Amino acid sequence: MIDLRLPSFGADMDDAEFIRWNVQPGQPVNKGDIACVVETQKGAIDVEVWQAGTVARLLAEPGQRLPVGHLLAVLAGEGEDWHAVAATATAAAPAPKAEAEKAATADARPPIEERPPAPDAAPAADAGAPAARVSPAARKRAAELGVDLQALAAAAGGKPVSIGDVERAAAATAPSTAAQNMRAAIAAAMARSKREIPHYYLGCEIEVEAALRWLEGFNAGRPVAERVLWAALALRAIGLALRASPQLNGRFVDGRFEPAPAVHLGVVTSLREGGLVVPTVHDADRQALPALMHELAEALSRARKGQLRSSDLADSTVTVTNLGDLGTDTVYGVIYPPQVALVGLGRVAPRPVARDGQVVVARTVQVTLAADHRVSDGLLGARFLADLQQQLARPEGLA
Amino acid sequence: MMDAQSIRRTVIDSVMEIAPEADFAKVDPGRSLREQLDLDSFDFLNLLIALQGRLGVDVPEADYRLVDSLDGLVDYLVRHQVRG
Fold it and tell me: Which pTM does this prediction carry?
């Protein structure tokens, strides 16, 4: 029997609204097939099947608000009879301990259905917040309309919140709820980061003329659809450099650093209509350059079309923000908790450099590292940047 | 063989798929298309891939400086289009 559970799309995610099923009982599915669609603050996400099997029983219903780890469906594995699996599946199967720990926050929370659908999910922020004075009727209406009661109560300044207030708020915010939710999610993550993580910052200017000339040679023989961009080359170099700096690659949870076994890079992506999504590029230290470029291009395309999949948002281990295209020279980033590092890439541009006692012009990039001082010190961060410089000085090693 | 007008139309349609909010009435065809429409390197690459699919013309990186503006891009595509 194979469990299909609601995956986590980030440390700041507690739950999601179930939208619809794309499969039905008796249907054979392969790894990567889209099983269902859920709605989160990051928008509608397609949830993929992780293991091939046959759908046996669907346990989630449209409209339900479900916690991370909740059992959505059971599938029959190879050799199993799906009818038998469906008969034995129970709807009340508890989430396994690992999922429950990931989903649980610092304070024990009441079941999802009883809480108002507030966008802010950062645990530290809620720990001391006073309860909003809202009547049960107004609370119910707020749940129906998707109104943020905490924001409303804060705006009301201690006065009770009425049904009228809720309905007026809903009318005022209806058209942009998705954008506001995303903004709220970003705000919660960034506020938590600055509250909890003692950041230190290191930067260096890396000469990339050799790397870019090598890339131009690499692309010259390839059709346009197989062209590799600087962003992919940079991610590859970052992936390899991180392999040698394990204290930058992992999570800080419950007062301890857990190094990650793989290097998955979250790539900060701006959406044309405003807001950010951070799709993941997996195994940046292991994938060959063309495969990495392909995964990056596909993930960015899905992100910009609002068609993200669960594997796009699977927990990354380090985040990279590349603002070079927008003309920024240097990025001073904010670490995305529970990660412990963020790499910032500025604009690649021709700049004066010293070479053999002369000033010449070569393309360079400002790279910054923001890191968690609870886990690493400046010396380690400096080594990472030196390693990155080495990787880019030997671009053949990045293919 | 497509004429310049049809090619221009194809380019505009392809750009609209990437940047649906683009207002071509405000675009100066002689200035950088990427800058005016806020297209990043991935957007531009996707545009070239779409144009290669529709018109059979592959723009190598060495020729990027020739296709920076809308006029430049259309001229280049007219000159290089594959005879059908």
Answer: 0.73
